[in-house]
Amino acid sequence: MRPAELIAEADLPEIPRKRYFAIGEVSDLCDVKPHVLRYWEQEFPQLKPVKRRGNRRYYQHDDVMMVRRIRSLLYEQGFTIGGARQRLKDSAKSAVESRRLAQAAAPAANQAAPRAAAGKGRSAEIKALCSELEDLLKLLPE
Predict the structure, then answer these.
(1) Which of 81, 94, 77 is CA-nearest to residue 9?
(2) What are the tens digits of pLDDT across the range 10-24?
(3) How many angstroms separate the CA atoms of 87 and 96, rounded?
(4) How many CB atoms lie within 10 A of CB 68?
(5) Torsion angle of alpha carbons 29, 34, 38, 39, nearest 10°?
(6) By three-state DSSP, how is residue 84 classified?
(7) C-alpha count within 13 angstroms, C-beta hemisphere, residue 98
(8) How far apart (Å, rounded) are the C-alpha atoms in residues 131 and 21?
(9) How far apart are CA 116 and CA 107, in angstroms?
(10) How many whole angstroms separate alpha carbon 47 and alpha carbon 59?
(11) List of domains in the chain
(12) What share of the chain is helix, strand, coil (3-state, %, to 5)?
């Protein structure tokens, strides 16, 4: 890593469409040295590469994205390890909560469509009732 000039995430190379990446590939894709990646595995529970024979690490696409996010928090946004860990934990909680809210809203949205169709027919009925009530009001003495 070049200490004088930090590489922004936009300057990082595009992640190839592969299932697994070796630690050297992730190092190049994220501009982080392999020993730093191994350290981050200990510090961030979200970063769990698959380990195969000989304890070789294989990162998946989500792992590479997580490494880039950790890198951004630490190097670009100036978080400490603990602060970055907390930020990732909080964002995971908010993602779970938003998914839960979306799932709760989905049945309501599915029920809203038949109600809307029924509402169109009901609006005609309501208009007819209103006109009848207006006619009845005209008949009543003041």
Answers:
(1) 77
(2) 678 888 888 999 999
(3) 14
(4) 18
(5) -100
(6) helix
(7) 6
(8) 72
(9) 14
(10) 9
(11) 9-78 (1.10.1660.10)
(12) 70, 5, 25
